[in-house]
Design a protein that fits this description.
Blueprint (H helix, E strand, L loop, with lengths): L1 H12 L9 E8 L4 E7 L9 E5 L7 E4 L3 E6 L3 E11 L16 E13 L2 E8 L2 E8 L5 E2 L3 E4 L5 E4 L1 H9 L7 H5 L5 H14 L5 E2 L9 E19 L4 E21 L7 E5 L2 E12 L7 E22 L4 E14 L3 E7 L4 E3 L3 E2 L5 E10 L3 E11 L8 E15 L2
Antiparallel strand pairs: 1-2, 1-5, 2-3, 3-4, 5-6, 6-7, 7-8, 7-13, 8-9, 9-10, 11-12, 14-15, 14-25, 15-16, 15-17, 16-18, 17-18, 18-19, 18-20, 19-23, 20-21, 20-22, 23-24, 24-25
Protein name: tRNA modification GTPase
Organism: Salegentibacter chungangensis
Length: 411
């Protein structure tokens, strides 16, 4: 079953479904100023791209355009990127990588800048991993970086070069702007877009913004009841004998609550999840056993725990209302008052061994599922083997579960 599920998961991940990130109406302009109307694959780029995928019509084959041949591209009513060769400061904000130099350390590079505001003055953004830089120009002047740099002072403490506020005060004048207004502007997309928009409005200039306007759902809370098919096998090996106790498969009900945090890029395709889940496995088995008076060993297991999967999920959009998903989970397990009881049985006497206290190890799970209207979901999840007798060196255990999970989002 594990092998089959993994094959199915890999098959889903390899599906080339362009519908998961749609092609939208757009254009690009090459280095010879030739404009091409097309459909551009909107990947909702977290980092500024160096290439993009496009097609000339609904039925044509997708092609790639790269930064060395394109000077501008855009998706209508969504985003626009300009290529510029400019100076950029890539100084790190990580304390162990900060310099003692207050001034920015510029290097020249050719980049696609994302347009945030077009107006009397233009605002641009560049994102590269943890690095975010903002640029501006006005009246077709050269593009300059708005300076914001973290550095270490002489005492080794973190200080900040906030020169971008001086740049705004000196170069973007408006009679209504007071110095206190500038001092309240943070080096963030929200604050800078608002400031540049107000500057254009103050100068009675037409302004266009390319912020993400639609409201996104960044958090989901779902109830997740499930049907579990679980199996447990125990083995004790010593120098004198071996006991093999296979409880087979047991079907049971479990219940979880899933908190999902949607990552704010790539069209909401990725999410992080935590899902506390109560589960129980109860069974008994009698075997013929060596080193047991009467030859029989009765074993009873009562295993209840709270599983806490930490998961990474990837969505594949089918249309506006439905999507399939695949996830991988790392599972912590906390059990309480759970035991394996061993009883030696014969015709004349009953005596017991010391109960084995259950303490389980960690495991990994793989799942595939379907979600409808961001409300209802159905998932098949396979939890790989985990040891539930980690405190006992002579015992090995193998606990596995296949779950059918029903989901209902309440928030």
């Amino acid at each position: 079953m594990k092998k089959q599920l993994l094959i199915l998961l890999l098959t889903i991940l390899s599906i080339n479904t362009y519908s998961q990130i749609s092609f939208e109406k757009g254009y690009f302009i090459n280095n010879s100023n030739q404009r091409t109307e097309c459909q551009i694959k909107n990947e909702d780029w977290r980092n500024n791209p160096t290439e993009f995928e496009y097609r000339l019509s609904e039925n044509s084959k997708p092609e790639k355009a790269r930064i060395n041949s394109v000077k501008e591209f855009g998706i209508y009513n969504t985003s626009k990127y300009f290529k510029h060769r400019l100076s950029i400061d890539r100084s790190s904000d990580k304390i162990n990588e900060m310099s003692y130099e207050k001034k920015p350390l510029f290097e020249e590079d050719e980049l696609f800048l994302k347009v945030l505001v077009e107006g009397k003055a233009n605002l641009y953004e560049y994102v590269e991993g943890p690095l975010t830089r903002y640029f501006y120009n006005k009246n077709n002047s050269d593009i300059e970086q708005l300076i914001h740099k973290s550095y270490k002072n002489a005492d080794g403490d973190v200080a900040k070069n906030m020169r971008f506020r001086q740049q705004l005060w000196n170069n973007l004048k408006c009679p209504q702007f007071k110095l206190s207004k500038i001092e309240d502007v943070d080096y963030s997309q929200t604050d800078l877009v608002r400031f540049f928009t107000e500057y254009s409005n103050c100068n009675k200039a037409k302004v266009t913004t390319f912020e993400q306007k639609k409201e996104r759902d960044f958090f989901n809370l779902s109830l997740r009841p499930r049907m579990n098919s679980s199996s447990l096998a125990l083995q004790k090996s010593t120098s004198g004998y071996t006991w093999n106790i296979d409880f087979g498969n047991k079907t049971g009900i479990a219940f979880g609550v899933e908190a999902e945090f949607i990552l704010p890029f790539n069209k909401n395709k990725w999410s992080l999840l935590i899902e506390p889940t109560y589960q129980n496995f109860k069974s008994e088995k009698t075997i013929e056993a060596e080193n047991v008076s009467g030859g029989k060993l009765k074993t009873e297991v009562n295993y209840s725990s709270i599983e806490i999967p930490l998961s990474l999920r990837h969505y594949f959009y089918l249309n506006n209302n439905s999507k399939i998903f695949a996830d991988i989970s790392y599972i912590f397990d906390s059990s309480s008052s759970s035991q394996v009881k061993l009883t030696r049985a014969d015709d004349s006497d009953l005596s017991t061994f010391e109960p084995l206290e259950i303490k389980s190890g960690k495991s990994v799970a793989f799942g595939i599922g379907y979600k409808l209207n961001d409300k209802y979901s159905l998932e098949l999840r396979y939890l790989t083997s985990r040891d539930i007798l980690t405190n006992y060196s002579h015992w090995d255990s193998d606990y596995k579960t296949l779950s059918v999970i029903f989901g209902y989002s309440i928030f």
